[in-house]
Amino acid sequence: MIDRLLKTAILVFLWVALVEDTFLFLMAWFAPDLWFRVFHAAAPTDLEIAFLRRSGGQWAAFALAQAITLWRWRKNPAWLAVAAGVRFSDLFTDLFYVLSVPSLTTLGWVLLMPPPWLNLVGVVIMLRGYKQTLRPVPVSGATTRPVL
After folding, report:
1. Calpha distance 52→29 (Å, rounded)
2. Percentage above 90 pLDDT, the chain
3. By C-alpha distance, which of 37, 68, 67 is closest to 52?
4. What is the pTM of this model?
5. Alpha-carbon distance 13 to 39, whole Å?
């Protein structure tokens, strides 16, 4: 059984991450110029758009995994571990992007610096939730004396 506060944190995190990843996927595929204007104040080349759309495929996969987790985690808590893995992998992509990109706008820095930390928080939330589902549920009236 998952604590009420943790259950709320799981739902909030999954919904926010689902909306964010869906938005990023849509922007990468349908408005890549907007991405480059907002984050880099530059016009993209064809190759840069291709790589952004490749990232868009990852965001679509993340959104799908999170949507399935929202749908299934109460009946199959292993989906919490799946969502934790997704967020963990995105932690590194965000961090490496910020470290390797040649230029970022001020807004780009503001928008790209929090996600690695938020992903780490999401990993902890999902894994704590999964761990809590592994605890045995106490049976009403049962004794805690060891059986010899």
Report:
1. 8
2. 78
3. 37
4. 0.85
5. 24
Q: How far is CA 1 from CA 7, 74, 131, in A?
A: 10, 10, 10
pLDDT score of 148 more than 50: no
Give the confidence band of 142 by pLDDT, cuts at 50, 70, 90. Answer: low
pLDDT digits (tens, 9 = 90+) for 22-52: 999 999 999 999 999 999 999 999 999 999 9
- Residue 69's closest CA among 55, 58, 84? 84
Tell me, letter by letter, the H, E, C secondary structure of the chain: CCCHHHHHHHHHHHHHHHHHHHHHHHHHHHCHHHHHHHHHCCCCCHHHHHHHHHHHHHHHHHHHHHHHHHHHCCCCCHHHHHHHHHHHHHHHHHHHHHHHCCCCCHHHHHHHCHHHHHHHHHHHHHHHHHHHHCCCCCCCCCCCCCCC
Round to whole Å and give the CA distance between 27 and 121.
25
Is residue 105 pLDDT above 80, yes or no? yes
- What is the distance between the alpha carbons of residues 4 and 78, in angstroms, rounded to a whole number? 18
